[in-house]
Amino acid sequence: MHIVQPGMEIDVLKENGKIAAENYRLMKSRGIKSVDFMGSIGAGKTALIIKLAEKLKARGVRVCAIAGDVTGADDYGRFSRAGLEAVNCNTGHECHLDANLVRKTLSKMDLDAYDVIFIENVGNLVCPADFPLGTDYRVVVVSTTEGDDMVRKHHDIFLHSDIAILNKIDIADAVDVNPEVILEDYKRLTGGNKKMITCSVKKETGLDEILSALKL
Amino acid sequence: MHIVQPGMEIDVLKENGKIAAENYRLMKSRGIKSVDFMGSIGAGKTALIIKLAEKLKARGVRVCAIAGDVTGADDYGRFSRAGLEAVNCNTGHECHLDANLVRKTLSKMDLDAYDVIFIENVGNLVCPADFPLGTDYRVVVVSTTEGDDMVRKHHDIFLHSDIAILNKIDIADAVDVNPEVILEDYKRLTGGNKKMITCSVKKETGLDEILSALKL
Description:
The structure is a homodimer. Chain A has a single domain, classed as Rossmann fold (3-Layer(aba) Sandwich). In chain A, 37% of the residues lie in helices and 19% in strands. Chain A is built from eight helices and seven strands; from the N terminus they run αβαβαβαββααβαβα. A seven-stranded parallel sheet of chain A has the order 3-2-4-1-5-6-7, sandwiched between helices.
């Protein structure tokens, strides 16, 4: 994040944390489970959310997606065309969602109509890390197409996430990336106890493991 | 960028602009041409810089790269292993380089030893847009693997760049992306006068067009 002057950052993060806690309590009071999906543009967050929602809907779970982007309604459109209920949330200029933007979006939704809310954060592997939104889980999604160095370059987002997902595992060879390097880096960064989940949204592999990690 | 409170953003950007102008004058006084390469993680900035530098070195041009990353020295290592002189520049936490970080890095370099400085910004398609570094050119590099919606989602970085490059054009089919959509979006956003350059660093296509656009 942009540190503007000493002390200022702490205030912003403290205020965000306060509102995130309110969001959490609000969603809990309606029995909603929620997930924040973070990751770079092209990591496959939108497609992943669509596939996970399809699986949940087949079981009778009512899902809604919040599509976070700087500008435009591309992801909102993709959700809608896939038959997933969705709400668009543009930041205007900001490089990440924050708890206040999510609070405003939640206030426009009929929360009694959903069991699960999937929030797709702005495509950015750096800044969303600093801003919890009040969800049950924070998930970081990366793709083999991003190279094998994303864990080494971006500690924060991996350390601030509950679950890490490596997508597009099916084209790792085509983009000359060895997934083992990424999985090992993640294991080392997180102290050896956590395992990154590999998946291919396109080939529909790894999705059940993700739902199980999310306790859904 | 993170807007912290009204007015504060303007001060930060103004201060950055002042130092960027100093960086520009410093490099000009030594006859150095400089380029800021921005784009998401995995767009191919490092590989592109290596290839462009090889072509320039073959012509006797002396090139140095500044490797900008939040943490680690991955890109610095890649530059060095490729035989390109390089300096590492970690932001520590920040999601983008700023003019002050570049000024500090320049102060550690022997500027009389180079004709061209390529700066690789932090892998991030949002935040670097706000922070000019004082280079001759600002270039945004995107990849077909990022999907076809990056221009529609991230106006700022395309509007703040002099040159836009679409990399990994050779695997567009494999990742189900139609490059024409991206090229059209860019043309429309920039008023119809500017053309995004397509390239494949891996297949070494489009590189001469990029050097020519950079007047190198």
